[in-house]
Amino acid sequence: MAIEFCGMQLEHPIVNGSGTYDALAARRVFGDAFDRNFPFSAYVSKTITLDPRAGNPPPRLWELGQGMINSIGLPNKGLVRFVDEDLPEYATLPAPLIVSVMGFSVDELVVILETLDRRDEIAALELNFSCPNVKTGNIVGSDPVECEAMMSQLRAHSDKPMIAKLAPSTSRPDLVAMAAESAGADAISLINTLPGMAFAPGSSEPWLGAGSGGISGPAVKPVALGQVARVSTSVKIPVVGMGGVENSRDAQALLDAGARLVAVGTENFRDPAAGSRISASLREPVTGAAAPIQKGSVRQPWRVIGGQATVNSRKPQP
């Protein structure tokens, strides 16, 4: 199931969400076996900024019943150290490299794009317009006017494919995606985490050091499916769908909704081999209890007769 995406020929549609999988650390732990069983068809780096960032103060994580809230805040080495120290090693990974970038102004992003545009190791750039854990993160990714204006100013500064990562905190993601497409984006990715917060146990004080964070995991799956479906029917450029993907059924749902690629995020923390597991399952026919349920094939276990609920007979119907 080879996939063409922004000029890349990929073996399968499963990639990682930015910031959810440290490939360099995984290689140090698992050695050559990691390269032989690389879990993704393309690797998306953690978001880098022009200057180094320490990230948000701890605590940075809050576990939910169906996911988590993170308040990481994009800690990274900054552009110069990324290029000097990390990029050469990223270039040896057995998959095309997509670098995620973020700036706090157009000028910052222009410097980043022009620097990375000269590096052949990079196949594409993801413009993070959507991080809820920094002050400017959601503005561009949720406002069509802001998104088009930003994308128009950036397009001329790199020939590499640009993927606009949008914020989920908008009622019209289709309009934001269309604005990005009209200004030169080559692809759209969504959704990022949803803004949220949690109180410390037995307290009315926020648990997270930054006060709030982004909700991810299975809890956001319906939001992701709805927004990917809406955006996919509104733009002609490919869409990367993400949000609560735990297994191949979740991935297939996003593909059915119109996504070209599917990114695995929070599940990577629980299962570092999730990408391999999901891509392998997508290649196999699904049977038994895991098979898709056809609409209309499930018989209601009850019915209403004369205003009373009646249990349906379990006998085979003629």
pLDDT below 50 for ≥5 consecutive residues: which ranges?
A: 314-318
Order of helices and strands: EEEHHEEEHEHEHHEHEEEHEHEHHEE
Q: Total number of β-strand segments?
A: 16
The rough form would be described as globular
Query: What distance separates the N and C termini?
Result: 42 Å
Cα-atom Rg, whole angstroms?
21 Å
In terms of DSSP E residues, the strand content is 15-25%
SS-derived structural category: alpha/beta
**Mean pLDDT figure:** 90
| Largest β-sheet summary | 8 strands, parallel
Report helical residue fraction: 25-40%
Q: What is the topology?
A:
Blueprint: E1 3-5, E2 8-10, E3 14-16, H1 23-30, H2 32-36, E4 43-44, E5 61-64, E6 67-70, H3 79-90, E7 97-101, H4 106-117, E8 122-128, H5 137-142, H6 144-155, E9 162-165, H7 173-182, E10 187-190, E11 194-196, E12 213-216, H8 221-232, E13 239-242, H9 248-256, E14 261-264, H10 267-270, H11 274-283, E15 302-305, E16 308-311
How does this model look, in words?
It is a single chain. The protein is of the alpha/beta class and 318 residues long. It is 31% helix and 19% strand. The protein is built from eleven helices and 16 strands. The chain has helices at residues 23-30, 32-36, 79-90, 106-117, 137-142, 144-155, 173-182, 221-232, 248-256, 267-270, 274-283, and strands at 3-5, 8-10, 14-16, 43-44, 61-64, 67-70, 97-101, 122-128, 162-165, 187-190, 194-196, 213-216, 239-242, 261-264, 302-305, 308-311. The strands form four sheets. An eight-stranded parallel beta sheet has the order 3-14-13-10-9-8-7-4. It has a four-stranded antiparallel beta sheet with strand order 5-6-12-11, with no helix packed on it. Helix 4 links the parallel strand 7 (97-101) and strand 8 (122-128). Helix 9 (248-256) packs across helix 11. It is globular. It starts with a strand and ends in a 7-residue tail after the last strand.
